[in-house]
Amino acid sequence: MSAVPVFLYHSVTSDPPPWIAPYTVTPRAFTEQLDRIADAGLTIIPLRRLVAAIRGGPALPARCAVLTFDDGFADFYWSVAPLLTERALPATVFITTGAVHPPGGAPEGSLLPPAAMLSWRQIATLDALGIEIGGHTVTHPQLDALPAQRVWHEVVDCKRRLEDALNHAVYAFAYPHGYSSNAVRRTVREAGWTSACAVRNALATADRDPMRIPRLMVRADTRPELFTQWVRGGGAPVNPAGESFRTTGWRLYRRTRALLGRPVGGPSESGTLSRESG
User: Fold this and answer.
1) CA distance 222 to 28
2) What confidence tens digit (pLDDT) does each residue in 45-93 have?
3) 6-259 fold
4) Where are the domains of the chain?
5) Where are the alpha helices (DSSP H) in the chain?
6) What is the pTM of this model?
7) For the purposes of burial, counting CB atoms within 10 Å of the CB of 238, is it exposed (0-12), middle (13-18) or buried (19 or more)?
């Protein structure tokens, strides 16, 4: 079964805030990456089509890829959407609802540092253009380090807020920082999300768990040679096995630090955002 690169982007701009800069690509780099995908003969498919194949639906094209964007940065509206529309390419944007700018007011609040984020009006416009809108929690916490009640609030309230704004159901979810656990995945499923993306820096296949779809994070320092390998179905593991002892240990450490009121894994003292691949 062919490996599917599911690309994960954050901000696409030439002038990002310092905290997100390591996870930002310029519009020029993004355009070049779209060209590399096209030159390699890959078909960009909607995330929902990959999920349908995972669930036993129609087979995927022989060579395909998926585009996803986390957090909901405003530059998606101005820099990315026009490029996707011009090329008739689908994509999914995962929204941190507490960071969205409402009309004439301030965001409800999130753990993300200050940045220009999408407004509800822009999100509705993107939805009308055919861009899939997905959920990324309310505040962007490390879900696997939270008590069960707070996890439920983050995933349920995010879904309700998006559905109220768009007037239709939303189904795709992405774990902040890529962090999840068996309990978190069960809660996400019970909340009504039918798929969920992690990070893992791995290639997906159509026999993957739909609640743990691996993605390839495209960063500012992602070399063109590595991106080309990903496009060709290499340069990363395919559907890695369950989490490693290192990942489990890291979760226990983060939970302990959270209980002590000293969480790790969010914005660092240097102002950059720490994102893990687990």
Assistant:
1) 14
2) 999 999 999 999 999 999 999 999 999 999 999 999 999 999 999 999 9
3) TIM Barrel (3.20.20)
4) 6-259
5) 27-39, 47-54, 75, 81-87, 120-128, 148-166, 182-190, 224-231, 245-259
6) 0.89
7) middle
